[in-house]
Protein backbone atom coordinates (compact mmCIF):
# COMPACT_ATOMS: atom_id res chain seq x y z
CA UNK A 1 0.00 0.00 0.00
CA UNK A 2 2.90 2.32 -0.63
CA UNK A 3 0.74 4.78 -2.58
CA UNK A 4 -1.33 5.51 0.53
CA UNK A 5 0.02 8.15 2.88
CA UNK A 6 -2.95 9.19 5.02
CA UNK A 7 -5.98 7.80 6.81
CA UNK A 8 -8.18 9.85 4.49
CA UNK A 9 -6.80 7.92 1.51
CA UNK A 10 -7.75 4.68 3.27
CA UNK A 11 -11.29 6.00 3.67
CA UNK A 12 -11.47 6.80 -0.03
CA UNK A 13 -10.23 3.35 -0.95
CA UNK A 14 -12.66 1.65 1.43
CA UNK A 15 -15.49 3.74 0.03
CA UNK A 16 -14.75 2.44 -3.46
CA UNK A 17 -14.49 -1.16 -2.34
CA UNK A 18 -17.29 -1.65 0.16
CA UNK A 19 -20.95 -2.18 -0.70
CA UNK A 20 -22.90 1.04 -0.09
CA UNK A 21 -24.88 -0.50 2.79
CA UNK A 22 -21.69 -1.35 4.66
CA UNK A 23 -19.83 1.87 3.88
CA UNK A 24 -22.80 3.95 5.01
CA UNK A 25 -23.10 1.99 8.24
CA UNK A 26 -19.40 2.42 9.05
CA UNK A 27 -19.12 6.06 7.96
CA UNK A 28 -22.45 7.36 9.15
CA UNK A 29 -23.59 9.20 12.23
CA UNK A 30 -26.85 10.13 13.91
CA UNK A 31 -29.44 12.51 12.43
CA UNK A 32 -27.75 15.51 10.74
CA UNK A 33 -24.27 14.13 11.53
CA UNK A 34 -23.31 17.40 13.21
CA UNK A 35 -21.37 15.75 16.03
CA UNK A 36 -19.72 13.43 13.52
CA UNK A 37 -18.34 16.43 11.65
CA UNK A 38 -17.52 18.44 14.77
CA UNK A 39 -15.48 15.64 16.37
CA UNK A 40 -13.09 15.96 13.49
CA UNK A 41 -13.13 19.71 12.98
CA UNK A 42 -12.65 20.58 16.64
CA UNK A 43 -8.98 19.59 16.34
CA UNK A 44 -8.46 22.23 13.66
CA UNK A 45 -9.40 24.91 16.17
CA UNK A 46 -6.47 23.99 18.42
CA UNK A 47 -2.91 25.09 17.73
CA UNK A 48 0.27 23.40 18.95
CA UNK A 49 2.62 25.83 20.72
CA UNK A 50 5.78 23.85 20.07
CA UNK A 51 9.15 24.10 21.77
CA UNK A 52 12.48 24.31 19.93
CA UNK A 53 16.02 23.23 20.87
CA UNK A 54 15.07 20.25 23.04
CA UNK A 55 17.22 17.36 21.71
CA UNK A 56 14.55 15.12 20.21
CA UNK A 57 16.94 12.49 18.89
CA UNK A 58 15.45 9.64 20.97
CA UNK A 59 11.68 9.51 21.14
CA UNK A 60 9.25 6.94 22.52
CA UNK A 61 5.49 6.59 22.02
CA UNK A 62 5.03 3.96 24.72
CA UNK A 63 2.48 4.37 27.53
CA UNK A 64 1.18 2.43 30.54
CA UNK A 65 -2.50 1.70 30.43
CA UNK A 66 -4.59 -0.72 32.48
CA UNK A 67 -1.42 -1.90 34.20
CA UNK A 68 0.34 -2.83 30.94
CA UNK A 69 3.10 -1.15 29.00
CA UNK A 70 2.22 -0.82 25.29
CA UNK A 71 4.29 0.56 22.41
CA UNK A 72 1.65 2.79 20.89
CA UNK A 73 -0.84 5.16 22.60
CA UNK A 74 -3.38 4.63 19.79
CA UNK A 75 -5.79 1.85 20.78
CA UNK A 76 -8.44 0.17 18.64
CA UNK A 77 -11.94 1.35 19.61
CA UNK A 78 -14.65 -1.31 19.70
CA UNK A 79 -16.53 -1.46 16.41
CA UNK A 80 -19.11 -4.04 15.39
CA UNK A 81 -19.10 -6.49 12.47
CA UNK A 82 -15.52 -6.60 11.13
CA UNK A 83 -16.37 -9.47 8.80
CA UNK A 84 -18.36 -6.98 6.71
CA UNK A 85 -14.97 -5.44 5.85
CA UNK A 86 -12.71 -8.48 5.41
CA UNK A 87 -13.05 -12.24 5.26
CA UNK A 88 -11.12 -12.77 8.51
CA UNK A 89 -12.67 -9.73 10.20
CA UNK A 90 -11.72 -9.42 13.86
CA UNK A 91 -8.86 -11.93 13.42
CA UNK A 92 -7.17 -9.56 10.97
CA UNK A 93 -7.69 -6.69 13.38
CA UNK A 94 -6.33 -8.42 16.45
CA UNK A 95 -3.22 -9.66 14.62
CA UNK A 96 -2.57 -6.11 13.43
CA UNK A 97 -3.06 -4.77 16.97
CA UNK A 98 -0.46 -7.21 18.28
CA UNK A 99 2.07 -6.27 15.61
CA UNK A 100 1.51 -2.57 16.28
CA UNK A 101 1.95 -3.07 20.03
CA UNK A 102 -1.46 -1.85 21.04
CA UNK A 103 -4.76 -2.97 22.60
CA UNK A 104 -7.78 -4.15 20.65
CA UNK A 105 -11.14 -3.52 22.28
CA UNK A 106 -13.46 -6.21 20.94
CA UNK A 107 -17.14 -5.34 20.45
CA UNK A 108 -19.94 -7.39 21.97
CA UNK A 109 -21.28 -7.35 18.40
CA UNK A 110 -18.16 -8.91 16.89
CA UNK A 111 -18.60 -11.35 14.06
CA UNK A 112 -15.89 -13.65 15.48
CA UNK A 113 -16.06 -15.46 18.82
CA UNK A 114 -14.08 -13.86 21.63
CA UNK A 115 -12.20 -17.11 22.27
CA UNK A 116 -10.93 -17.18 18.67
CA UNK A 117 -9.95 -13.51 18.76
CA UNK A 118 -7.93 -13.88 21.97
CA UNK A 119 -6.32 -17.06 20.63
CA UNK A 120 -5.05 -15.08 17.61
CA UNK A 121 -3.83 -12.15 19.72
CA UNK A 122 -0.25 -11.33 20.64
CA UNK A 123 -1.23 -8.32 22.78
CA UNK A 124 -4.02 -7.33 25.16
CA UNK A 125 -7.68 -7.71 24.15
CA UNK A 126 -10.34 -5.87 26.14
CA UNK A 127 -14.03 -6.76 25.85
CA UNK A 128 -16.65 -4.08 25.21
CA UNK A 129 -19.93 -4.91 26.88
CA UNK A 130 -23.46 -4.01 25.92
CA UNK A 131 -25.92 -4.79 28.71
CA UNK A 132 -28.84 -6.92 27.55
CA UNK A 133 -32.28 -6.93 29.13
CA UNK A 134 -31.52 -10.61 29.53
CA UNK A 135 -29.07 -10.30 32.44
CA UNK A 136 -28.12 -13.95 32.17
CA UNK A 137 -26.95 -13.33 28.60
CA UNK A 138 -24.95 -10.35 29.90
CA UNK A 139 -23.36 -12.41 32.68
CA UNK A 140 -22.49 -15.11 30.16
CA UNK A 141 -20.71 -12.51 28.02
CA UNK A 142 -18.66 -11.38 31.01
CA UNK A 143 -17.75 -14.96 31.95
CA UNK A 144 -16.78 -15.80 28.39
CA UNK A 145 -14.61 -12.69 28.07
CA UNK A 146 -12.88 -13.54 31.35
CA UNK A 147 -12.36 -17.20 30.46
CA UNK A 148 -11.07 -16.30 27.01
CA UNK A 149 -8.37 -14.12 28.58
CA UNK A 150 -9.56 -10.55 27.98
CA UNK A 151 -7.79 -8.16 30.32
CA UNK A 152 -10.47 -5.49 30.86
CA UNK A 153 -14.20 -4.84 30.36
CA UNK A 154 -15.52 -1.68 28.71
CA UNK A 155 -19.13 -0.88 29.52
CA UNK A 156 -20.67 1.29 26.81
CA UNK A 157 -23.05 3.73 28.42
CA UNK A 158 -24.24 5.87 25.51
CA UNK A 159 -26.33 3.42 23.50
CA UNK A 160 -29.23 2.41 25.71
CA UNK A 161 -31.56 4.03 23.27
CA UNK A 162 -31.04 3.52 19.56
CA UNK A 163 -30.27 6.73 17.72
CA UNK A 164 -31.75 7.93 14.45
CA UNK A 165 -29.45 6.77 11.65
CA UNK A 166 -31.07 7.69 8.42
CA UNK A 167 -28.52 6.01 6.17
CA UNK A 168 -29.14 2.62 7.81
CA UNK A 169 -32.91 3.04 7.71
CA UNK A 170 -32.80 3.93 4.03
CA UNK A 171 -30.46 1.05 3.17
CA UNK A 172 -32.30 -1.48 5.34
CA UNK A 173 -28.99 -2.32 7.05
CA UNK A 174 -28.70 -6.01 7.78
CA UNK A 175 -26.14 -8.81 8.11
CA UNK A 176 -25.58 -10.99 5.05
CA UNK A 177 -26.00 -14.78 5.19
CA UNK A 178 -23.11 -16.46 6.97
CA UNK A 179 -22.19 -13.47 9.14
CA UNK A 180 -23.53 -13.42 12.67
CA UNK A 181 -22.83 -12.00 16.12
CA UNK A 182 -20.90 -15.00 17.35
CA UNK A 183 -20.69 -13.95 20.98
CA UNK A 184 -24.46 -14.07 21.15
CA UNK A 185 -24.93 -17.54 19.63
CA UNK A 186 -25.17 -19.17 23.04
CA UNK A 187 -27.92 -16.85 24.24
CA UNK A 188 -29.89 -17.17 21.02
CA UNK A 189 -29.46 -13.56 19.84
CA UNK A 190 -26.92 -13.81 17.00
CA UNK A 191 -28.97 -12.22 14.18
CA UNK A 192 -31.22 -9.23 13.54
CA UNK A 193 -35.00 -9.46 13.50
CA UNK A 194 -36.81 -9.09 10.14
CA UNK A 195 -37.66 -5.46 9.44
CA UNK A 196 -37.86 -3.01 6.57
CA UNK A 197 -35.59 -0.39 8.12
CA UNK A 198 -32.35 -0.92 10.04
CA UNK A 199 -32.05 -4.49 11.31
CA UNK A 200 -29.50 -3.31 13.85
CA UNK A 201 -31.93 -0.67 15.11
CA UNK A 202 -34.59 -3.31 15.62
CA UNK A 203 -32.07 -5.58 17.37
CA UNK A 204 -30.95 -2.89 19.80
CA UNK A 205 -34.52 -1.88 20.59
CA UNK A 206 -35.42 -5.48 21.29
CA UNK A 207 -32.38 -6.50 23.32
CA UNK A 208 -30.47 -3.68 25.01
CA UNK A 209 -31.33 -2.74 28.57
CA UNK A 210 -32.75 0.77 28.58
CA UNK A 211 -32.88 0.82 32.38
CA UNK A 212 -29.07 0.89 32.69
CA UNK A 213 -28.11 3.12 35.65
CA UNK A 214 -25.18 3.92 37.94
CA UNK A 215 -25.95 1.04 40.32
CA UNK A 216 -25.42 -1.33 37.39
CA UNK A 217 -21.80 -0.20 37.29
CA UNK A 218 -21.48 -1.37 40.91
CA UNK A 219 -23.15 -4.61 39.82
CA UNK A 220 -20.64 -5.12 37.03
CA UNK A 221 -17.62 -4.14 39.15
CA UNK A 222 -18.82 -6.68 41.76
CA UNK A 223 -19.32 -9.38 39.14
CA UNK A 224 -15.76 -9.39 37.82
CA UNK A 225 -12.16 -9.03 38.95
CA UNK A 226 -11.23 -7.43 35.63
CA UNK A 227 -10.72 -3.66 35.46
CA UNK A 228 -13.94 -1.96 34.34
CA UNK A 229 -13.99 1.04 32.01
CA UNK A 230 -17.03 3.11 31.15
CA UNK A 231 -17.34 4.46 27.63
CA UNK A 232 -19.42 7.35 26.37
CA UNK A 233 -18.84 9.97 29.05
CA UNK A 234 -18.82 13.66 27.99
CA UNK A 235 -19.23 15.46 31.35
CA UNK A 236 -17.02 15.96 34.38
CA UNK A 237 -19.78 15.15 36.87
CA UNK A 238 -20.53 11.84 35.14
CA UNK A 239 -16.83 10.98 35.08
CA UNK A 240 -16.66 11.61 38.81
CA UNK A 241 -19.72 9.41 39.38
CA UNK A 242 -18.14 6.68 37.30
CA UNK A 243 -15.08 6.76 39.57
CA UNK A 244 -17.28 6.68 42.68
CA UNK A 245 -19.10 3.64 41.31
CA UNK A 246 -15.93 1.66 40.82
CA UNK A 247 -14.79 2.44 37.28
CA UNK A 248 -11.06 1.97 36.79
CA UNK A 249 -11.11 4.05 33.63
CA UNK A 250 -13.30 6.36 31.58
CA UNK A 251 -13.46 6.62 27.79
CA UNK A 252 -14.45 10.12 26.76
CA UNK A 253 -16.59 9.43 23.71
CA UNK A 254 -19.80 10.40 21.95
CA UNK A 255 -19.77 7.11 20.03
CA UNK A 256 -18.18 8.74 17.02
CA UNK A 257 -21.22 11.00 16.53
CA UNK A 258 -23.48 7.99 16.10
CA UNK A 259 -25.72 8.40 19.14
CA UNK A 260 -26.83 11.85 20.36
CA UNK A 261 -26.43 14.33 17.54
CA UNK A 262 -25.21 17.80 18.58
CA UNK A 263 -23.46 16.33 21.62
CA UNK A 264 -20.10 18.08 22.08
CA UNK A 265 -16.93 17.21 20.18
CA UNK A 266 -14.93 15.02 22.54
CA UNK A 267 -11.70 17.04 22.47
CA UNK A 268 -13.66 20.06 23.77
CA UNK A 269 -14.87 18.23 26.89
CA UNK A 270 -11.67 16.35 27.67
CA UNK A 271 -10.19 19.09 29.93
CA UNK A 272 -13.34 19.16 32.10
CA UNK A 273 -13.13 15.40 32.57
CA UNK A 274 -9.41 15.41 33.30
CA UNK A 275 -10.04 18.01 35.98
CA UNK A 276 -12.96 16.10 37.49
CA UNK A 277 -10.88 12.92 37.79
CA UNK A 278 -7.77 14.55 39.22
CA UNK A 279 -6.50 12.62 42.22
CA UNK A 280 -8.86 9.66 41.71
CA UNK A 281 -6.37 7.44 39.86
CA UNK A 282 -9.01 6.78 37.20
CA UNK A 283 -7.42 6.42 33.78
CA UNK A 284 -8.69 8.32 30.74
CA UNK A 285 -8.96 7.35 27.10
CA UNK A 286 -10.75 9.36 24.47
CA UNK A 287 -12.02 8.81 20.93
CA UNK A 288 -13.80 10.58 18.10
CA UNK A 289 -12.53 12.16 14.90
CA UNK A 290 -8.83 11.36 15.36
CA UNK A 291 -7.38 11.26 11.85
CA UNK A 292 -3.89 12.80 12.19
CA UNK A 293 -0.94 12.44 14.53
CA UNK A 294 -1.41 16.05 15.57
CA UNK A 295 -4.95 15.12 16.76
CA UNK A 296 -3.45 12.39 18.94
CA UNK A 297 -0.85 14.79 20.30
CA UNK A 298 -3.56 17.31 21.25
CA UNK A 299 -5.61 14.68 23.12
CA UNK A 300 -2.57 13.36 24.99
CA UNK A 301 -1.40 16.88 25.84
CA UNK A 302 -4.83 17.80 27.19
CA UNK A 303 -4.67 14.88 29.61
CA UNK A 304 -5.81 11.67 27.93
CA UNK A 305 -3.64 8.67 28.84
CA UNK A 306 -4.24 7.27 25.35
CA UNK A 307 -6.66 7.54 22.44
CA UNK A 308 -8.81 5.12 20.44
CA UNK A 309 -9.69 5.14 16.76
CA UNK A 310 -12.78 3.53 15.27
CA UNK A 311 -13.51 4.11 11.59
CA UNK A 312 -9.92 4.36 10.31
CA UNK A 313 -9.36 0.77 11.45
CA UNK A 314 -12.37 -0.32 9.38
CA UNK A 315 -11.02 1.55 6.34
CA UNK A 316 -7.68 -0.24 6.64
CA UNK A 317 -9.45 -3.55 7.11
CA UNK A 318 -11.64 -3.04 4.06
CA UNK A 319 -8.74 -1.85 1.90
CA UNK A 320 -6.24 -4.56 2.77
CA UNK A 321 -7.19 -6.77 5.73
CA UNK A 322 -4.59 -7.19 8.47
CA UNK A 323 -1.91 -5.32 6.48
CA UNK A 324 -4.31 -2.40 5.98
CA UNK A 325 -5.00 -2.12 9.72
CA UNK A 326 -1.27 -2.30 10.45
CA UNK A 327 -0.62 0.42 7.91
CA UNK A 328 -3.29 2.70 9.38
CA UNK A 329 -1.74 2.33 12.83
CA UNK A 330 1.76 2.80 11.41
CA UNK A 331 0.81 5.99 9.52
CA UNK A 332 -0.87 7.53 12.55
CA UNK A 333 1.91 6.54 14.96
CA UNK A 334 4.51 7.95 12.57
CA UNK A 335 2.59 11.22 12.32
CA UNK A 336 2.44 11.38 16.12
CA UNK A 337 6.16 10.71 16.37
CA UNK A 338 6.89 13.52 13.90
CA UNK A 339 4.51 15.89 15.70
CA UNK A 340 6.16 15.12 19.05
CA UNK A 341 9.64 15.68 17.65
CA UNK A 342 8.63 18.96 16.06
CA UNK A 343 7.02 20.01 19.35
CA UNK A 344 10.25 19.42 21.24
CA UNK A 345 8.90 16.44 23.19
CA UNK A 346 10.41 12.95 23.44
CA UNK A 347 7.88 11.00 25.51
CA UNK A 348 4.12 10.90 25.92
CA UNK A 349 4.45 11.80 29.62
CA UNK A 350 6.04 15.09 28.60
CA UNK A 351 3.01 16.19 26.57
CA UNK A 352 1.43 18.90 28.72
CA UNK A 353 -1.59 21.21 28.30
CA UNK A 354 0.54 24.34 27.79
CA UNK A 355 1.42 22.96 24.34
CA UNK A 356 -2.17 23.57 23.22
CA UNK A 357 -3.96 26.86 22.60
CA UNK A 358 -7.16 27.82 20.82
CA UNK A 359 -6.54 29.07 17.28
CA UNK A 360 -6.74 32.83 17.29
CA UNK A 361 -9.75 33.80 15.10
C1 LIG B 1 -19.10 1.07 12.46
C2 LIG B 1 -18.99 1.38 13.92
C3 LIG B 1 -19.39 0.44 14.87
C4 LIG B 1 -19.27 0.71 16.22
N1 LIG B 1 -19.59 -0.26 17.11
C5 LIG B 1 -19.41 -0.02 18.42
C6 LIG B 1 -19.66 -1.05 19.36
O1 LIG B 1 -20.01 -2.18 19.01
N2 LIG B 1 -19.49 -0.74 20.67
C7 LIG B 1 -19.08 0.49 21.11
O2 LIG B 1 -18.94 0.72 22.30
N3 LIG B 1 -18.82 1.46 20.22
C8 LIG B 1 -18.96 1.24 18.90
N4 LIG B 1 -18.66 2.22 18.01
C9 LIG B 1 -18.09 3.50 18.49
C10 LIG B 1 -16.55 3.43 18.55
O3 LIG B 1 -16.12 2.61 19.60
C11 LIG B 1 -15.90 4.80 18.78
O4 LIG B 1 -16.48 5.41 19.89
C12 LIG B 1 -16.00 5.74 17.58
O5 LIG B 1 -15.97 5.04 16.35
C13 LIG B 1 -14.83 6.72 17.64
O6 LIG B 1 -14.89 7.65 16.63
P1 LIG B 1 -14.08 7.56 15.22
O7 LIG B 1 -14.75 6.51 14.42
O8 LIG B 1 -14.25 8.93 14.70
O9 LIG B 1 -12.64 7.21 15.55
C14 LIG B 1 -18.78 1.97 16.65
C15 LIG B 1 -18.38 2.91 15.71
C16 LIG B 1 -18.47 2.63 14.35
C17 LIG B 1 -17.99 3.66 13.36
C1 LIG C 1 -25.90 0.69 19.40
C2 LIG C 1 -24.99 -0.42 19.12
C3 LIG C 1 -24.77 -0.91 17.74
C4 LIG C 1 -23.31 -1.02 17.32
C5 LIG C 1 -22.69 0.29 17.46
O1 LIG C 1 -22.19 0.61 18.49
C6 LIG C 1 -22.74 1.24 16.39
O2 LIG C 1 -23.16 0.90 15.29
O3 LIG C 1 -22.37 2.39 16.64
Automatic annotation (TrEMBL):
Positions that bind FMN: 78-80, 107, 128, 130, 156, 231, 253, 258, 287-291, 310-311
Annotated FMN hydroxy acid dehydrogenase domain ranges read: 1-361
Which sites bind glyoxylate? 25, 165, 255
* Keyword Oxidoreductase applies: yes
Organism domain of life:
Bacteria
Write out the similarity annotation.
Belongs to the FMN-dependent alpha-hydroxy acid dehydrogenase family.
Recorded protein name is Alpha-hydroxy-acid oxidizing enzyme
Protein's organism: Longibacter salinarum
Amino acid sequence: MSSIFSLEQYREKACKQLPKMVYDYYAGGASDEITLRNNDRAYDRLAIRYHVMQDVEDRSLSISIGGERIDCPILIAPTAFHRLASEQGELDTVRAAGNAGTVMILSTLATTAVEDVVAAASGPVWFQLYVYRDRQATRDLVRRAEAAGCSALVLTADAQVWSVRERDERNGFTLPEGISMQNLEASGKPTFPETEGSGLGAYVEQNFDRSLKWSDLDWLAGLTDLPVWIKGVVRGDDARRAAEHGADGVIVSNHGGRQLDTSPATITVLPEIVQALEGTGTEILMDGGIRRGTDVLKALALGADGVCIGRPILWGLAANGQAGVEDVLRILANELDVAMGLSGVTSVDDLTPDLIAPVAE
